[in-house]
């Protein structure tokens, strides 16, 4: 019998969740999403559970949602929308969870993995933790409520992450506010044991944290602010292309990365992240639902997943293939409620 993809146990007064799908980098299946939602619903109202801890087995915390399975269900299959509805409702439940929710993160935390960690109260990153929202590279967009925290990062770092699908190691993640603490991954078991016996999460974590400097950010903040603060995707690319001196290499590399992404995804993500600055979290989730429904009816998401995860040729054929060919009316269609209405939230 195959092992469960996600494990639940009680340790002291902690509810302990373990992602247990290491062969798939703990990508979230529909069943994992449903089981996690059910556990949080029970533990929310259980006075014997005072906090929740989520951790993972293997070399990744969670590399995202299982979008390959979503795509293979076939365009128009109800399974597709039901997965995203369940996932987004879970993200909202984590954000609103009334008890401490501590994510112990080592390895990749991407896409849907950010949705089950960053919305919690405490995010402890180990040495190998790497954060990314890579969705523009698969013809999708930064979803799972990520626009809420991306739009609130300092110095336009969130928009930089969204458009270029940048990977942030743990020092950069701390600097950007993705992580709240850095601690050795070897200490995670001790952290769990200590949290299970106390109510003072911050005091426990203070005994394990270690100082970590940003790997790439900090010195880049001013340039990121100037490049990404205003204008269209084209104007952002022009600013990157025009950088000189010590910033020229970074600018060229970042511009090249952005140019590989879906033109539709880039235009949608730019508008989405900027709109999210003025939205409450639940409104960000509703916006995600609208965009996801539109993209499930489109082309690029299927093509992006094919190129990245199915055929693995890394050569997506976007349609439209250039920024100037993207119809503004098509972009507008991603921001209106679908015919069957907005997502119902708890």
TrEMBL record:
It catalyses: 3-hydroxy-2-methylpropanoyl-CoA + H2O = 3-hydroxy-2-methylpropanoate + CoA + H(+). It comes from Kaistia terrae. Its EC number is 3.1.2.4. SUPFAM superfamilies: ClpP/crotonase. Keywords: Hydrolase. CDD domains: crotonase-like (cd06558). InterPro entries: ClpP/crotonase-like_dom_sf, ECH_dom, HIBYL-CoA-H. This is 3-hydroxyisobutyryl-CoA hydrolase.
């Amino acid at each position: 019998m195959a092992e469960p993809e996600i494990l639940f146990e009680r340790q002291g007064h902690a509810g302990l969740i373990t992602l247990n799908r290491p062969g798939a980098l703990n990508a979230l299946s529909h069943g994992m999403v449903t089981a996690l939602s059910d556990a949080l619903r029970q533990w929310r109202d259980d006075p014997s559970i005072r906090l929740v801890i989520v951790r993972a087995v293997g070399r990744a915390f969670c590399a995202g949602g299982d979008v390959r399975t979503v795509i293979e269900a076939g365009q128009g299959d109800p399974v597709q929308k039901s997965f995203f509805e369940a996932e987004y409702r879970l993200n909202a439940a984590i954000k609103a969870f009334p008890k401490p929710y501590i994510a112990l993160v080592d390895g990749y935390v991407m896409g849907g993995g950010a949705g089950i960690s960053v919305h919690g109260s405490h995010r402890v990153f180990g040495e190998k933790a790497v954060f990314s929202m890579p969705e523009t590279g698969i013809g999708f967009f930064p979803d799972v409520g990520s626009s809420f925290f991306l739009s609130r990062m300092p110095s336009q770092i969130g928009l930089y992450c969204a458009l270029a699908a940048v990977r942030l190691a743990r020092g950069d993640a701390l600097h950007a506010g993705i992580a709240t603490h850095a601690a050795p991954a070897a200490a995670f078991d001790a952290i769990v044991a200590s949290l299970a016996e106390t109510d003072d999460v911050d005091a426990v974590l203070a005994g394990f944290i270690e100082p970590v400097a940003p790997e790439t950010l900090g010195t880049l903040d001013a340039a990121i602010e100037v490049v990404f603060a205003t204008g269209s995707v084209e104007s952002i690319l022009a600013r990157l292309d025009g950088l000189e001196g010590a910033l020229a290499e970074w600018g060229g590399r970042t511009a090249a990365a952005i140019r590989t992404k879906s033109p539709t995804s880039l235009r949608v993500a730019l508008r989405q992240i900027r709109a999210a600055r003025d939205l409450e979290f639940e409104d960000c989730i509703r916006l995600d639902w609208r965009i996801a429904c539109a993209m499930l009816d489109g082309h690029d998401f299927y093509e992006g997943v094919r190129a990245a995860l199915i055929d693995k040729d890394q050569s997506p054929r976007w349609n439209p293939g250039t920024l100037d060919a993207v119809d503004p009316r098509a972009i507008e269609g991603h921001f209106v409620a679908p015919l069957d209405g907005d997502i119902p939230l708890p």
